[in-house]
Amino acid sequence: METGKFFSIMAFACAVAGIFNAVNYFQGVDEANAQLLEAKKNLAQLKESWKMRQDEWAKIEVVAARAKEAASKETPLLRELDDLKAKWRRVEGEFKYLVSSTRAAVEKVRADGVNAAFPEVKLLNGKVLTAAKIKKIEPNQISFMHADGFLMVPQDLLPDDLRSRFDLGPTSLADELESAQAAILARK
Questions:
Q1: Nearest alpha carbon to residue 188 among 123, 94, 92
Q2: Tell me, what CATH number does 168's domain have?
Q3: pLDDT digits 0-9 by tens, 32-55
């Protein structure tokens, strides 16, 4: 009987161990189910996050395409701007040359005009200089030797032909070109 008791105890122990194993098994299953539910919840969040990232990436690609298109439009405009700047420098140089050559031509005409003789010069105030000879030409006046002596005549009393010939007065071409050049350079 002792053997029977032994087997009974063993059977009881096995039954207890089996119950214990079954409880552990079902606890493990419950824990695995809880982890599975948590993983499904996390997967749903990841899918939502992934969708948002895809939408953001699509927006980024649109912006990148627009930037690339803008850059492709900008390149010819920059090239054209460089061409215009080169043309501007060329025109500016030509204008500077025009101003300096005009000034030089006016100075030469004025220098060549010294000692020019005129039988008579009728001034705008009515005075007439007879046997007049130019002694000095300045931007705003001409000095004459004439039959009655020496006279410095301001440009506003000179006849139009002498004012334009020697480029005198406020409408002087050389002065106007220099003023235009100064205005252009000031706008840079």
A1: 92
A2: 2.30.30.100
A3: 777 878 878 887 888 888 888 888
